[in-house]
Design brief:
Elements: E1 4-5, H1 11-22, E2 30-33, E3 41-51, E4 58-64, E5 66-68, E6 71-75, H2 86-93, E7 96-101, E8 104-112, H3 115-128, H4 132-138, E9 145-151
Parallel strand pairs: 1-4
Antiparallel strand pairs: 2-3, 3-4, 3-7, 5-6, 6-9, 7-8, 8-9
């Protein structure tokens, strides 16, 4: 089954994902952005492919990431919206995902960090994307930190 871009993404995410995909990951891995109230940032990004929990279709989402050991960390912030992003709901239904980091592609198993691990990884996440702290202030939900563990 061919994966497609997730519906209802903001245009900047669609443009970013298309650039990433069309270049095979040679372009788009490092995303340059100037978020409100922050200076210029260069943020690493990956493409996450999940299986839709309702449709069974494969959807691609561009997300900022960090690393812990040989795993990747992503954050289900949705900009501080009151509900979780669709990709996070998808991985709760099926944690088997595909990941593209630059030109490298791999399969991974997604899991939500909790307790001390979440606290530590949250600190790592705000290093690569400081606006996460603002997003957390905008919502009552605890924003999930997700670990993508590579599988063979």
């Amino acid at each position: 089954m061919e994966a497609k871009l997730a519906p209802k993404m903001p245009q900047w995410m669609v443009d970013h994902a298309n650039k990433y995909l069309s270049s095979g990951g040679a372009e788009g891995h490092i995303y340059k952005i100037k978020p409100p109230n922050y200076g210029d940032l260069e943020v690493p990004s990956l493409l996450l492919t999940t299986t839709g929990r309702k449709s069974g279709e494969k959807f691609i989402f561009p997300l900022f990431y960090g690393t812990t050991g040989n795993s990747y960390i992503i954050v289900a912030s949705k900009g501080g919206a009151p509900e979780h992003p669709g990709w996070y709901k998808n991985i709760l239904g099926n944690p088997e995902v595909e990941v593209q980091v630059g030109t490298k592609k791999l399969k991974a198993r997604a899991r939500t960090a909790s307790g001390a691990e979440r606290a530590k990884l949250w600190e790592e996440a705000i290093k690569f994307w400081p606006p996460y702290t603002d997003y957390q202030k905008k919502t009552e939900r605890e924003i999930p930190v997700v670990v993508l563990d590579p599988v063979q």
